[in-house]
Structure formats: structure tokens, C-alpha cells
Amino acid sequence: MKNKFLKSILGLTLSSMLFVGCVNDDDYSVPQIECDEVTEVANLTIAELKASATTTATQYQNEDVIEGVIVSTDRGGNFYKVIYVNSVRFDEATQKEVYGEYAFSIAVNQTNTWQQYNVGRKIYVNLKGLYVQLRNNTLQIGALYNGNVGQIADADFAKYVTRSCKVVSEDLLIQEMSLTDAVKDENLGKLIKLKDVQFAETSLGQNYYNPANVIGGETNHKIVDLTPTTLIFRTGSYAEYAYTPVSPNSGDIIGVLTKFNQDFQFVSRLKSDIILANDGRLDEQPGEPGEPGEPGEPGEPGEPSNGVLLFNGGDFENWATFTGGINSQFGLKPYAVQAVGAGITGSNALHISGTPPGNDYVFTAKAPAGLPANPTKITFWVKGTAGKSLSLNVNRSTSGFEAYNVGVLGSSAVTIDKNPELNPSSGSGANQYVGAINTNNQWVKVTLNISDMSIMTTEGSDSFSLKVGKDVAYDLYLDNFMIE
Q1: pTM as predicted
Q2: Strands (E), 146-217
Q3: What is the pLDDT of residues 179-218, one digit of tens each?
Q4: Which residues sit opposite 363 in a β-bridge?
Q5: What are phi and psi of 378, to 5 degrees?
Q6: Half-sphere exposure of 129 toward its Cβ, with a 13 Å CA cutoff?
Q7: Residue range 107-157, pLDDT digits in tens
Q8: CA nearest 343: which of 379, 313, 378, 317?
């Protein structure tokens, strides 16, 4: 038996519904569809269903019903044919509903589901005939496809999923957590607001979706905070914010926590989920009013005050000193020249201008006398644009080298770790050139973290190489290669 329910337009009625935190179809951006309230009653909890599920897709045989509240839809384009649902239960002690203790996903071969199955909508799932599976420790419900849970046919969806008229305010569904607290299996599928986070430096200068940086059809960025914890942020090409530049600011990000193999991933739904409203980075300290910026601030680099030149002529002031300090057998590529007066604070710089025909060694420098015994970092400055990135080889004290791949470089300083991937034939680091460079006409500091390697310091031995990618234009200025 169904009771006819129509959307009320009376302000008094709407106000009273808002007061209690739950509404009936109160999202006026969602098409208003006449709603028949249902009398289904859940007789199984999501916790009970998850406890009985296995990693093998199994058809459910019992006449059981679960209930939940939708927390993600395909409205913003970043979720496709999958809906995430969080649990709901009535707490007798508080006489209130409790949301988001458990979660599951349900797949359907249907698009624009958000128009009826919007965020906050309570639904009932009739389990008999559907398949249930634990994949990546996430409870998945759907039809059988290639031995795993897949999408329910469009024509069958309404048979299994019943739409309630009740819509819960999104504010009651969002769970606020720190990055460290969020990255746990128990939070998979939940709607989470990550507090006090930002995107990693390596993501700045890119859009949220970058066709030159795609893994599995989507772009991965990293969410970070002031702890060592990081989290992958996934964006597809159809997301409404796909071609928006990654924000350099800090703040909060809302999304659903997912997992692929061993990697936790975070997926936002809408542009409004990215609430990075605090100007500046989490680790930035404000300077004294009226004082000039310290070295390292984009646009106003100063002369380096620590360390020594990484190689002879590493500041490019004396071109003969530089060319005399590189491996003459390999030489210097013709598109790399001295740029007089174009360096930091009007000094000289190295200018790479052209389209390299190969993944070239621009130069290989020899170790000079007087390098520090136990250095921890190499720094240098970059300004300009390039269709691909830079890869730096830092030679080991024994044999071979570690590769440091800069990746995408924007207008903020970055610190690069060595590439853990090794070339199987040589045992040296693997060079990569993925990621464009555009510093917006500012000098940007690049730091290579060499604290976990023993570098070549023997005078006259090859110690450092600069490499570029092939078949794209480079217009870069480089200055002040230092080691400390």
C-alpha cells in the first residue's frame, strides 16, 4: 500500500521540515518528481550484509531489504554508473537517526541517475537476485559481470532499488576527519570532509584532469597536510571541474573515500566540494610587513646563501668556467646557450630554447673540488615553459645514478624525491619527462632530496646530468645549481 505524497509549496511547511534536518525533495536544483511514499521496511543492516559477504561475487537468495542514504551521484560527472550509499539507523537512546557508520556501492547501467537518486535520498535495496561482493574491502552490490559485481541493467534497476520520498540534509551525512584519520578501510565509501589539507606541490600548474598525466583514464593528484600522510585525488575528464587549475590554497575537500588494490583514493563530486579557501600553503609563514620576500618565494628569488655550486660555472656567470667543467666527450647541446642578464637578479643564466629531437643529455657536469661530504639537497631555479619536463641524474658514489623527475612544474617551489623505479638493464634510475612546465614568468625553486643517497664527490668524475624530453618545445632559463 502506498500513500500519495506531493511536494508542498507552503513556506510554513517547508520551514518546519528544514527545522528537523530532513526534507522531502527540498533540492530545487533536482527536477521535482511526484513521489509515492513507500512502506518498505529494512530487515537487514549493511553491517550484517558486509559481515556475510566474501571476495567472491555471490547471488543473494533471501528476501532481505537494506536501507541507506545516497552520498554520491553522477551529477558532477566524476562518478559514472555507480552510486555510493551510507547507512542509516535509528538510535533509541537519542531518538535520532545516525548516518554513515557503514557504506556500500551499487552499480547501474544508467546515466543522469542524480535526477531521481539525488544526494541525501533514502533508498531501499531488495537484495534477492542481486550479487554481493567485497572488493578492495568495499561492499559492492549489483549484477554479475565477468565473475565480479557489475552494473544492474537499466530496465531492472527500479525492480531492486526503491526510492523513498525522504531526503536527508547533506550536512548530516558529511563526516569531518583529518587526513590521517580518514585513510582507513573502515571509512571506504563514506562521505568525508578532509580538514586542513592542500594539494601537493607537484600538482600545482596542472588542471584537475590533465591528459598528459593519466592513469587508468583519470588523473591522480596528491592531497597532503603537515603530516607524512598523502592521499590520491582522482579526477576524470567529464568532471565539471576537470579543466580547472589545481588550487594552490589550503582548506577542506569533500569526497568519497575509495580504494584500488592497496591505494586509497578520494573522489570529489562537484567543484563546490573543493573548499580550499585559505590563501597560501599550510607550511607558509607570513613575513614581516614591508620586508622583501625571502629566497624561494615565487617572483622574488634572492641569491642563494647556503651551500656551494654543484659544478664549476653552476651560476653561469663565467661561460668558459661552465663549459670547462662539463664532460667534453658528451659536450653541450647547441640549443643550450648562455643568457646574459636573464638570470636571477639580472645575473646570467642557462637558456634552453628549441625542440630536442631526442631525450637528450643537455650536459653532464663533473664534480668540482670542495663538495660537501654528506650533502642532503641540490637546488636550482627555473623560469619559462616546456611541453615536457626535466629529468636530472645524480651519480652515485659507487656506480650508476639516481633519476629525479621534475614532472609538472608551475609557479610554486617543489621538492623532488628520487624515482624508486630502476632501469632493469643498468640498475640506474628511470628517466621520465611527463608533465609540462609553465612558471608564469616567475623564477621557481626546485629542490632535489638527496639525503638518502651517497653522491659522487670525486673531483673530475661525472656527477650530474640534465636531460630533456623529445619532440616538444622548450623555452627555459635555469640558474644557480647549488648543493648543501
Answers
A1: 0.57
A2: 148-150, 161-168, 175-177, 191-199
A3: 999 999 999 999 999 999 999 988 888 999 998 888 889 9
A4: 466
A5: -115, 135
A6: 9
A7: 999 999 999 999 999 999 999 999 999 999 999 999 999 999 999 999 999
A8: 317
175-278: CATH topology: OB fold (Dihydrolipoamide Acetyltransferase, E2P) (2.40.50)
The DSSP call for residue 411 is S
Q: Is the dihedral of CA 345, 350, 354, 356 positive or negative?
A: negative
Between CA 32 and CA 26 the distance in angstroms is 9
Contact predicate 483/372, CB 8 Å? yes
CATH of domain 308-483: 2.60.120.260
Could you tell me what percentage of the chain is helix, strand and coil, using 3-state DSSP and rounding each to the nearest 5? 10, 40, 50
Distance in angstroms (rounded) separating the CA atoms of residues 361 and 468: 7
Q: Which fold has domain 46-170?
A: OB fold (Dihydrolipoamide Acetyltransferase, E2P) (2.40.50)
Gap between the terminal Cα atoms of the chain: 77
